[in-house]
Amino acid sequence: MTGPCSRPVVLCLSGHDPSGGAGLQADIEALIAQGCHAAPTVTALTVQDTVDVSDFRVLDREWVLAQANAVIADLPVAAVKLGMLGSVEMVETVLEIMQKLPGVPLVCDPVLRAGGGGALGKNEVGYAMRERLMPVAAIATPNLPEARILAELPEGTADECAEKLLPYVRHLLITGGHGEETEVVNRLYSRDGSRHEFLCERLPGSYHGSGCTLASALSGRLALGEALPSAVRTALDYTWRTLRDAEAPGRGQYIPRRLPLELN
């Protein structure tokens, strides 16, 4: 038996994906790979597979608060990773939780669509996340389609979406890979005007849980104390490797391999 846990604790507020490709399982695996301890708090239950999502149910706020409060009272939370919320009420629930964690970085992954395209919340959820949650987040990590929803710019470029969203959040990582480009461009924008671009090779196929993997890895790097631009690069590099080594256990998208084979 060893002594106290030396691994940073990351509170994960995400939905459950029974296929294991996205959601809390993605959070747990990605955080283990960073050397962190995941504290998973379930916000929603989904009916989905590697093809798409067909239904979901958001948990009662009392259940979510009870889970999070139990973790906060017992474990030293070093970062918070936010995934699927599914309702405006859950946005308010997360805000109540964050009031108990002053100074703890929040990574906001605005999960509004499943990888197969299915909706994971009504449009007002995106609006509430932009207006209420993004201002308390250290960074938001939408892909370009999600950024367009949040910015209310259906055809907007990453730069146009960033201009609309930066008044709400200090740092914004808009991930690429949703067009026809041969090289994926991930863009980190900061409110102070600084900007970084991270390029990676485009991989064939489509992937289930890539956004969850990235946001979880990033929250882990921040929990470990890594500075934000460096943490973004580390998380992107890790995520690309999980996609390169992905497997297709079902009839739909590939699932990232987030842990080494000997740990699978």
UniProtKB/TrEMBL annotation:
Entry keyword set: Kinase, Transferase
GO molecular function, one term: phosphomethylpyrimidine kinase activity
Location of the Pyridoxamine kinase/Phosphomethylpyrimidine kinase domain: 17-253
Membrane-crossing segments per the record: none
EC numbers, comma separated: 2.7.1.49
PANTHER family: HYDROXYMETHYLPYRIMIDINE_PHOSPHOMETHYLPYRIMIDINE KINASE THI20-RELATED (PTHR20858:SF17), PHOSPHOMETHYLPYRIMIDINE KINASE (PTHR20858)
Protein name per Swiss-Prot or TrEMBL: hydroxymethylpyrimidine kinase
